[in-house]
Design a protein that fits this description.
heterodimer, A: 115 residues, mainly beta, 7-stranded mixed β-sheet, B: mainly beta, 11 strands, 0% helix
Chain lengths: 115, 112
């Protein structure tokens, strides 16, 4: 695994509670991403970051916020968790966006269950 | 709409046999196509990346092909091993930080 650590790996939370997932990298890559993976869907982009304090929305950003105060950390927050946010969340990193050669490395995933 | 379609959804083959997985895409503009392997409970791991000008790429027993004219790709696995049991995901990039479109994957099971 390319120096990416997601925490926690598993979490069960109640509807309406706030939840924060952490992604930590040791590769000093500029770009960081949060995806969710659900049965019947490909991975879908939630938010991404292209530098410290620089973030943007992805395809399924509603109900999620992110922060990146340091190069190595990218936090995903569910302000008020809902059952539809039960999913496996993956963090990914990449060094650059040079077309054709942008390798993306994925973390191990966080399985979140909202009850 | 940018889409990546994979077939079959699932596949069971005997150890030692070969298999081919298919990927069709409608992503535009095209930058590159990737194949990832995802073991159960793990994150995806890159197998190959092909740009427009590359029509074949190998990584050990894995060989990917790309036909940019018909917008089709295939992943051929030779002499399958039990460790090849996984989901294989086709991903097409159109460029830009949010430019990856993922297929739903093919779930491959290798039986002894």
């Amino acid at each position: 695994d390319a120096g990416i650590t997601q925490s926690p790996r598993h979490k069960v939370t109640e509807t309406g509670t706030p939840v924060t997932l952490r992604c930590h990298q040791t590769e000093n890559h500029r770009y960081m991403y949060w995806y969710r993976q659900d049965p019947g869907h490909g991975l879908r982009l939630i938010h991404y970051s292209y530098g410290v304090k620089d973030t943007d929305k992805g395809e399924v950003s509603d109900g999620y916020s992110v922060s990146r105060s340091k190069t190595e950390d990218f936090l995903l927050t569910l302000e008020s968790a809902t059952s539809s946010q039960t999913s496996v969340y993956f963090c990914a990193i990449s060094e650059s966006m040079r077309a054709g050669r942008t390798e993306a490395f994925f973390g191990q995933g966080t399985r979140l269950t909202v009850v | 709409k940018n889409q990546v379609e994979q077939s079959p959804q699932s596949l069971i083959i005997l150890e030692g046999k070969n298999c081919t997985l298919q990927c069709n895409y409608t992503v535009s503009p095209f930058s590159n196509l990737r194949w990832y392997k995802q073991d159960t409970g793990r994150g995806p791991v890159s197998l190959t990346i092909m740009t427009f000008s590359e029509n074949t790429k190998s990584n050990g027993r894995y060989t990917a092909t790309l036909d940019a004219d018909t917008k089709q790709s295939s992943l051929h696995i030779t002499a399958s091993q039990l460790s090849d049991s996984a989901s294989y995901i086709c991903v097409v990039e159109r460029g830009g930080a949010d430019g990856l479109t993922f297929g739903k994957g093919t779930h491959l099971i290798i039986q002894p």
